[in-house]
Amino acid sequence: MENLTMNLMPRIGDTAPDFEAVTTIGNLKFSDYNKGSWVIFFSHPADFTPVCTTEMSGFALEKEFFANNNTKLMGLSIDSIHSHIAWVNAVQEKTGVLFEFPIVADISMQVSKLYGMLQPGESETAAVRAVFIIDPEGKVRLIMYYPLNVGRNMEEIKRALLALQTSDANKCAMPLNWKSGDKVIVPAPKTIEGLAERKKSDLEMVDWYLAKRSL
After folding, report:
1. What are 93-133's pLDDT values in tens digits?
2. What is the pTM for the complete model shown?
3. Residue 159 lies in a domain
């Protein structure tokens, strides 16, 4: 029971746990970094490993996309700050890709435990591939978990971020496989009067409870 409690992760809708940590851009307090912007906080198992290098490079190459959508990035692994810096340097020298976003040096595993990134059934000494999308109010809005041997899907992370932001801005929901520019789902009516208004509307209706519109 103690081990399970230690590794509980925040749930969707929870306030993201705050922490202060050493990172590759200096000491940071998460709540300060998060203030006024979305944050994608993600963990990787270890520096100088092949799958992690592809993933971190993928995030770095999408720098402009995330900046244009008011989103900051933050990585983490259970490695020292010296290992992080050496890895950042090596990847830049070999590929020309620079990891400019902060990478938390979580050698104590405190932040990993705080976010439930340690999964003992997978590894007790390496964080799994977790992704937390956190909104500007500090609320956890989406969580993705991948095992050590499967890399993340960058297009899905980008799609999910845009879906959350679009839903917030337009008070709507997103259908299966929604992508930017697609029609969105209008919330179902909750009263008889609302039902009557729905039937008279020009929405694209599959049924009264499932209606779509363009933004």
Report:
1. 999 999 999 999 999 999 999 999 987 776 666 788 999 99
2. 0.91
3. no
